[in-house]
Design goal:
It is built from ten helices and no strands.
């Protein structure tokens, strides 16, 4: 039957999917010890950043010369040169800055997780959510087992697979944000491209903070100890909420383009 198929699919997926999700759910500085960041972060950024800054300065200088002939003055030229120096230093150290931001966020994650774990006496991980999902079977009576188990397995499978895809995408987005950080800092020197830098910061910070939001939501179903009529909606509702929150992260860039 359909229920049996969904149940077998759920069991086969849940044996691996939760451990994979736990590995990529929380991002820490160990990310810099893995490829491709391990190789890229060891690259000498000085020459790359200086090349980009010189290219921008040459473009500004050309504009300045042209404006002299058109009697239009460029204001605060010395301030702009100072800005080039400051942003150049930030760009050269951008990978270290990203690493420190991830350290701070991971410290916040540990504080949030430890405070919640003290309340329930166990770690807040997706593998423990699997244990609570299994306990639903014991709460469902034989009268409604045919319908509720099938619905439960179908919904859980769909949203956990979707969540795995979204968390994988988040993992890639964070790595990409770190890699392009020197170039994004340089964009602050170009007035028409400032908005791209601010969008970049918004995407980077939001995707990092997601792991704290996910822990807060995951705490609800893991700590839930109630009757079937309330317990099942809590499990399903929490999974759907985590999915929707992580889905929002992927839509930030798209919303900015529109």
């Amino acid at each position: 039957s359909i229920n049996e198929v969904l149940n077998r699919l759920s069991i086969s997926l849940r044996s691996n999917i939760y451990s994979v999700i736990d590995k990529i759910a929380n991002i820490d500085v160990s990310l810099f010890e893995k490829e491709p960041l391990k190789s890229i972060c060891n690259t000498n950024l000085l020459y790359i950043v200086l090349t980009l800054i010189w290219a921008i300065i040459v473009a500004i200088a050309v504009k300045y010369v042209l404006n002299l002939y058109s009697d239009i003055a460029i204001s605060k030229i010395y301030f702009y040169i100072l800005k080039c120096v400051v942003i150049g230093i930030i760009s050269i150290n951008s990978y270290s800055i990203c690493k420190e931001i991830i350290k701070i966020n991971n410290l916040l994650t540990q504080i949030v997780a430890s405070s919640l774990e003290e309340r329930i006496g166990s770690s807040i991980e997706y593998k423990f959510l699997d244990d609570n999902i299994d306990s639903i079977d014991e709460l469902i009576s034989s009268k409604d087992k045919l319908s509720l188990n099938g619905v439960k397995d179908g919904i859980v499978c769909f949203y956990m697979i979707s969540l795995l895809v979204l968390l994988s995408l988040r993992y890639v987005i964070v790595i990409s944000c770190i890699i392009i950080s020197p170039v994004m800092c340089i964009l602050l020197l170009v007035p028409n491209l400032n908005n791209y830098f601010y969008t970049y910061i918004k995407v980077f910070i939001y995707n990092l903070l997601l792991q704290n939001i996910n822990i807060l939501i995951l705490y609800i179903p893991i700590s839930a100890k109630t009757e079937k009529s309330v317990f099942l909606p809590i499990i399903i509702g929490s999974i759907v909420l985590i999915y929707n929150v992580n889905k929002k992260a992927g839509s930030i860039i798209y919303e900015k383009k529109n």
